[in-house]
Amino acid sequence: TKKTVTFLKLTELMLFMDFKFPESKPHLSKVRDFFCFMAFTSLRYSDLRALKHANVSDGKIEFYTQKTKDRLTVPLIEHAKKILDKYKNESEVYAFPVYSNQKINDYLKEAAELAGLDREIVETYFVGAKRFDKEYKLHETISCHDARRTFVCCSLALGIPTTTVMACTGHSNYESMKPYIEVADETQKLQMERWNDYQYKSQIIDILDKADNDKLKEILRLIKTVA
Fold it and tell me: 192: buried, middle or exposed (CB in 10 Å: 19+, 13-18, 0-12)?
């Protein structure tokens, strides 16, 4: 059977990004930052390790990928910019003080377990005609490459066009994207939520249009209370 494609869902990625690790374990905060930066930019580990300050300008990163030698341009979202700024003084040349791939993967498992990333992952395989299901926790299987998958799946879940995602990742055709598209189960859910969003927004706008000055002040006060 096809190997299960593992990645962090959008809610899991945000939880991981904001998790406070013990001060006695700064290496866990670092590998979390490295993972999240890759998840926000689609970089592979090899590209993260090679990324230089010179590759960053005008709110984007431009670089040649180590694996395919493609030249890619990836716009930086605010989360990625904050992580870059956090490490800007660590080296005069390189963007991040990156550990070895194996060490990052080991630390990632520890960090993900502490952060409670324990979603069940089921791997199915067959011996002859007999089926076997092996279950894992997400923190047991997480690795650097899951960050790139996370970028693709979360981007699709947010409604970003496939062509835009492919331009950031360097995928050359739709077939190579299919494994990611098929497992992005949040995509359909979030897209369909737009029906609800539109319904609520249109009702709010209608109420605001009909409200007088006093009512608008009261509405603003209530919004500030729940915000």
Answer: exposed
Pairwise CA distance, residues 35 & 98, whole Å: 11
Q: pLDDT tens, 135-148? A: 999 999 999 999 99
Give the Cα separation of 71 and 144 in Å (integer): 21
Three-point CA angle 41, 181, 142, nearest 5°: 55
Tell me the one-letter amino acid at 114: L
- 148 Cβ contact list (under 8 Å, min separation 6): 38, 39, 42, 43, 44, 169
CB contact at 8 A, 16 and 8? yes
Alpha-carbon distance of 30 to 218, in angstroms, equals 45
pLDDT in tens, 41-76: 999 999 999 999 999 999 999 999 988 888 999 999
